[in-house]
Amino acid sequence: MSLPAFAAAALAFFVVNNLLVEAVLVLAGGTPALGRVRQGVGVRAWVSAMLLGMAPVVTVIAETSLGLVPILGLPTAAVYLACRGAIQADRERARAEAEAEQAQASAAEQARLVEGEQALIRQLQESDRLKRDLLATVSHELKTPLTVILGTLGTLSRRGAALGPAERREFVDMAIRQGTRLKELIEQLLLAARFEQTGREPAEHPLVDAAALARDALAAARVAHPGRELALIAREVLPVRAAPEAVLQVLGNLLDNAAKYSPDHGPVRLEATRYGPLAVLAVEDTGPGVPPADRERIFERFTQLDSGATRRAGGIGLGLYIARQLAVAQDGELVVCDPPLGGHGARFELRLPLTPIAPSPNPVAYAASSR
């Protein structure tokens, strides 16, 4: 046999052998990884080269003496054992790599779970802290008027006969004011709890004049804050569909806040105007204002800005939360805007959708307010 023919036969044997081996591996265990395929081809190439290199030797020995042919099984066995060891080592290495990848993935998942648990622990700790602060705040705000009421009643009980009519009336008025404050705080807590449990309930609201409700709210604010300069700007009828009591409560809350947080002689303005399809009832004050970063946070439950004016005003941080929930229940919204012209104070806007009124020969009837 010529050398070119021998080389061609060897190459054909190598190619066919590798194709058959890879086909068996794919049918037996799926498509192997590319790296392992390359390693297997390399090992089989060395084996094939050794076997083909021994072919001429086998031919010469067979022609010389057939009895020496079995001796050639020794190097063949050695090659077989070496190849099996290499294949076994390759499998062990692949298994070790797979286990390492699995261990790495497990470690990453474990780290993620630990991080999630730590975040949950921090959240629970923060929740516990907020609950403690809330309990302390509510207890203090409820205890203060209750203490005043008990003190005034005790004074009247012990010294009632020794007090003059004016002094007795002053103590009674003080007890009434503190009792009213205690009642309002309890109502706020109950109303906030109701919003959390039931949420917004759809309802059919009557047709009312938002400008007239603004006038009623300002009249009530003048009684509650007799020394405060209060101004109203309302030039037209603003028909909206809303519960009058809810609108009055929102405006009353905003006017009370404006009076509490403004300087002693600072004016408070209530404006009722039309802005596109909306009726806008805006309350402006001359107080410290609301920082832009806190303009959404102040509408959360039990939230109060940490300022001297806020602490002096007291409260449990439910007024604006309840006001926004009431605004949403009227299909409107309550927002805090940029300060008025001059850069001082705050501006809160209650925005309600206007109701188109069809022309009619009869006057439009509006629901009367609750005041």
Secondary structural class: alpha+beta
Main sheet: strands, sense, barrel: 5 strands, mixed
Full CATH superfamily name of the largest domain: Histidine kinase-like ATPase, C-terminal domain
State the low-pLDDT regions, or none: 307-313, 361-365, 367-371
Question: Helical proportion?
Answer: 55-70%
Order of strands in the sheet with most strands: 2-4-5-7-6
Q: Any guess at the CATH architecture of the largest domain? A: 2-Layer Sandwich
Helix-strand string: HHHHEHEEHEEHHEE
Cα distance, first to last residue?
121 Å
How much of the polypeptide forms β-strand, as a percent range? 5-15%
Put simply, the count of helices is 8
CATH structural class of the largest domain:
Alpha Beta
**Mean pLDDT across every amino acid position:** 78
Radius of gyration (CA) equals 44 Å
Q: Fill in the CATH topology of the largest domain.
A: Heat Shock Protein 90
Q: Which of globular, elongated, flat, extended, rod-shaped describes the shape? A: elongated
Number of domains as seen in the coordinates: 3
What does this structure look like?
The chain is α+β, with helices and mostly antiparallel strands. The protein has three domains: 112 residues; 70 residues, Helix Hairpins (Orthogonal Bundle), CATH 1.10.287; 147 residues, Histidine kinase-like ATPase, C-terminal domain (Heat Shock Protein 90), CATH 3.30.565. The protein contains eight helices and seven strands, in the order ααααβαββαββααββ. The strands form two sheets. It has a five-stranded mixed beta sheet with strand order 2-4-5-7-6. A hairpin with a 2-residue loop joins strand 4 and strand 5. Helix 1 crosses helix 2, helix 4 crosses helix 8 and helix 5 packs across helix 6. The longest helix is centred in the N-terminal third of the chain and has 87 residues.
